[in-house]
Design goal:
It contains 11 helices and 8 strands. By secondary structure, the protein is α/β, with parallel strands linked by helices. The protein has an 8-stranded mixed β-sheet with strand order 7-5-6-4-1-2-3-8, sandwiched between helices. The two termini are about 35 Å apart.
Length: about 325
């Protein structure tokens, strides 16, 4: 029986990663060779290496040209400017959607390419599985940053009506082409973050834990407070943020107004705060009506969200390196 043909694409995005690109390629290719050897009886493998250059200002382009001249299975996408890490990753994913197995990983080598062997082994061994997600065991950085990350993952779950985001998952994983096609649809019709698009495009997933390395070279796309800005943006643009924040605000406002109403009926409260009972009662009623308004706004926002069919994402202009 002739083995099936299977194309594996290693997909990444690069912003000022000139120091890492060649090592990234070498480690991805060596991992591909080990995968091919392990499954040689079942599949004929082919290899793709796709990277979107997201407006790098270092000599990343020179490294890319050099790799392209050496290896025919290397493909580069040149974004006309820096569109942000997520938009750049999605642009590269779309170009890889015709491959059978797509591996998404960062170009800074913090996602060890060697882990991809375990991802693909799990993917191929479970026929019902359409994605294998890689989740970090622990986060690098100081205690404040680690706490912020945990809160960020919880906020992503709390502000979406879709599937939750596994703790430690940032996009690194192995996906079928069906999942990548669904990711593109989510991205084009909603304002969900890339990791939300990835998780909600999967029917059945497996999860592999790994230890993420610290960055040793290159420049992060999130300069200074960029990580926090991107986290806030993704939470605010999640599909259920408006309605759930409105409901929470309405609950707090209503609770406060009820407390004021009860307090206005107790003389000791007015004497304690030296306030007139009428003053307290009028303000409590104002809070009450404001709370009711917030409930109406939350209901309206849910209707708007459910009927939403567009997105405010920037159009990514790019060219292919030939």
């Amino acid at each position: 029986m002739t083995p099936s043909t299977l194309e594996i694409a290693f997909v990444s995005s690069a912003y000022n990663e000139a120091e890492n690109l060649e090592e990234l390629y070498n480690r991805c290719y060596q991992t591909f060779r080990s995968i091919s050897f392990d499954h040689s009886q079942d599949y004929n493998f082919s290899f793709r290496f796709i990277v979107a250059n997201n407006g790098s200002t270092d000599n990343s382009m020179e490294i890319m040209h050099s790799l392209k001249q050496k290896y025919e299975h290397v493909e580069f996408i040149i974004n006309r400017s820096n569109y942000g890490a997520e938009a750049s990753f999605l642009n590269a994913l779309k170009y890889a959607a015709n491959s059978d197995v797509i591996i998404l990983l960062c170009s800074d080598l913090q996602d060890p390419p060697e882990i991809c062997r375990d991802l693909v082994d799990t993917f191929l061994s479970k026929n019902y599985c359409d994605a294998v997600l890689a989740c970090k065991n622990s986060s690098y950085g100081g205690p404040f940053l680690r706490v912020f990350r945990r809160l960020y993952y919880k906020a992503l779950v709390a502000t979406s009506r879709l599937d939750s985001i596994p703790t430690g998952f940032h996009g690194f994983g192995c996906y079928s082409n069906r999942v990548v096609e669904a990711v593109t649809r989510y991205w084009n019709t909603t304002d969900l973050s890339l990791r939300q698009c990835l998780v909600n495009s999967c029917n059945t997933v497996s999860i592999i834990k790994y230890n993420r390395s610290e960055r040793t070279s290159g420049i992060s796309s999130y300069k200074r407070y960029g990580y926090f800005v991107e986290a806030i943006r993704s939470i605010m643009s999640s599909d259920a943020t408006a309605s759930r924040v409105s409901i929470l605000f309405a609950f707090i406002t209503l609770s406060f107004s009820i407390m004021l109403i009860i307090g206005s009926l107790v003389p000791i409260v007015s004497s304690l705060f030296m306030l007139n009972q009428n003053f307290i009662l009028i303000n409590s009623l104002i809070f009450l009506f404001f709370g009711l308004q917030m409930i109406l706004i939350s209901l309206l926002s849910r209707q708007v969200e459910s009927g939403r069919s567009g997105t405010l994402r920037p159009f990514v202009e790019y060219t292919l390196m030939i």
